[in-house]
Amino acid sequence: MKIDIMQDMMNTNLAYAAENKAAFAANGIYAVNVLGSPGAGKTTLLETTFHYLQGKIKSAVVEGDLATARDAARIAACGVPVIQINTEGGCHLDAKMVAKTLGGFDLPNIDLMVIENVGNLVCPAAYDLGEHEKILVMSLTEGGDKPAKYPTAFLAAAAVVLNKFDLLPYIGVDAEKMKKEILSINPQIKIFETSCREGQVFGVDKFAEYLLQKAGKNSAKA
Amino acid sequence: MHETSLMENILATATSTLAPYNVKRVNEVSVIYGPLANIIPSALEFAYEALSEKTIFAKARFVMRRVPIEAECLDCNKSYESEQVPFKCPFCGSNRFNITGGTDVYLESIDFDDDDEI
Q1: In order of start, what are the domains of chain A with their CATH numbers?
Q2: Number of domains chain B contains
Q3: Could you give the ipTM of this predicted complex?
Q4: What domain range includes position B96?
Q5: Residue range A175-183: average pLDDT?
Q6: Which of A202, B16, B40, B103 is most exposed by smallest CB count within 10 Å?
Q7: What tens digit of pLDDT does each residue of A126-135 get?
Q8: Separation in Å, CA B74 to CA A181, A185, A187, A188, B88
Q9: 3-class DSSP assignment, residue A152
């Protein structure tokens, strides 16, 4: 005999994602899931962004890495509460891992929760963590051909931060063509151009402003 | 590369589905997946072989079927299917869309012989 089941095999993850979503909603938290390749500049972008958000909004971070607490230490140095998850080989964060960390935060005192995913352009795109939106960080040095090669990440993201623009004069990447390609995959995606290099920082203020608006706070009011 | 954890869930769901029956032999486990689920079919097949060993599923056929991406046009509100990006609405030509399907992996069905069957 044959039994029809038709059950979503991501159901366990989706159940935890719904729990996280409810916890964020109950505490008025805007949550973003930041993904991108290893070395795209995710942590550096966050460090630089928190510099702009300081005093305007209360942020917190969940850090995902295979090993070490290096990124958590960098975020903590910005004065932002952070909990590190080590996936010990796991290529992405799942909603259960995130759910376990939420008890360690003073949630009523947080406006913006940033979940920095494991460096990987593939698997994190398939896992809902209960966030409001996914933000993709891609550095120009990864190459202009990458958006078309990794379309699922660009389809899943509401915004993409093209980082390391300070290197544009030194590398053979056509940034305009890259942006066009991203928009051909996902015409609704919001694109930011940034450099987080000390002394050459630009564009991060616009990204920080975007997060402020999304979190329902206007910097002018603060 | 999350095929192994997916397969653990597939086999656990299949096992609990079959629990009320007197299963003599499992013939087929059937799964459907969307192009945006980010899975590698050969890796899922490999995970099936590895994880079904010494279980009632070991000798069953593992069948995977790929389904298209489903999108909803944000301009004319019609639904359409697409095999790949970029998406374009076949009705009005708009490229503004919401993805409504093709991102998941489903355990579709199990075919088996049970002891009560003649």
Answers
A1: 11-212 (3.40.50.300)
A2: 1
A3: 0.86
A4: 3-112
A5: 95
A6: B16
A7: 899 999 999 9
A8: 20, 15, 11, 11, 11
A9: helix
The distance of B90 to chain A (nearest Cα, Å) reads: 16
Mutation target to probe the A interface, by most A beta carbons within 10 A, among B98, B103, B105 is B103
Contact A84, A100 (CB under 8 A): no
Residues of A with CB under 8 A from a CB of B: 1-12, 91-92, 122-123, 125-127, 148, 151-152, 155, 184-185, 187-188
pLDDT tens-digit series, residues A80-100: 999 999 998 888 999 999 999
The answer to the question of residue B118 being in a domain is no
Residues of A in contact with B38 (CB under 8 A): 122-123, 125-126, 152
In a domain? residue B50 = yes
CA distances from A29 to A2, A58, A79, A98, A114 (A): 46, 10, 18, 14, 10
Residue B23 placed within a domain: yes
| Residues of A whose CB is below 8 A from B10 | 9
Contact check, Cβ <8 Å, B109/A4: yes
- Tell whether B81 is covered by a domain: yes
